[in-house]
Amino acid sequence: MNIVVCVNHVPDTEAKIKVASDNLSIDKAGVNFMLSPYDEIAIEEGLRMREKFKGEVVAITLGSDAHKETLRKALAMGVDKAVLLKDDGLRDSFGVAFGLAEEIKQRNPDVVLFGRQSIDYDDAQVGTLVAEMLGLPSVAVVVKLELQDGKAVCEREIEGGHEVVATTLPAVFLAQKGLNEPRYPSLKGIMAAKSKPIEEKSAAQSELRVETVQMRKPPAKGAGKILGTDKSAVPELIRLLHEEAKVI
Amino acid sequence: MNILAFAEQRDNKFKKSSFETVKAARGIADQLGAECVALVIGSGVEGIAEILGGYGASRVVVVDDAKLAQHSNTAFAKVIAAVATKEGSQYVFLPASQMGKDLAPRVAVKLEAGLAADCVALKVEAGEIVATRPIYAGKALIDVRVKTASKVFTLRPNVFTAGAGQDGSAKVEKIGVVLDASDFGSTVKDVKVSAGRPDVTEADIIVSGGRGMKGPENFNLIESLADVLGAGVGASRAVVDAGWRPHDEQVGQTGKTVSPTMYVACGISGAVQHLAGMSSSKYIVAINKDKDAPIFQIADYGIVGDVFDVLPELTTQLKAALGK
Ligand SMILES: Cc1cc2nc3c(=O)[nH]c(=O)nc-3n(C[C@H](O)[C@H](O)[C@H](O)COP(=O)(O)OP(=O)(O)OC[C@H]3O[C@@H](n4cnc5c(N)ncnc54)[C@H](O)[C@@H]3O)c2cc1C
Ligand SMILES: Nc1ncnc2c1ncn2[C@@H]1O[C@H](COP(=O)(O)O)[C@@H](O)[C@H]1O
Question: Which domain holds residue B261?
Answer without folding.
Answer: 205-322
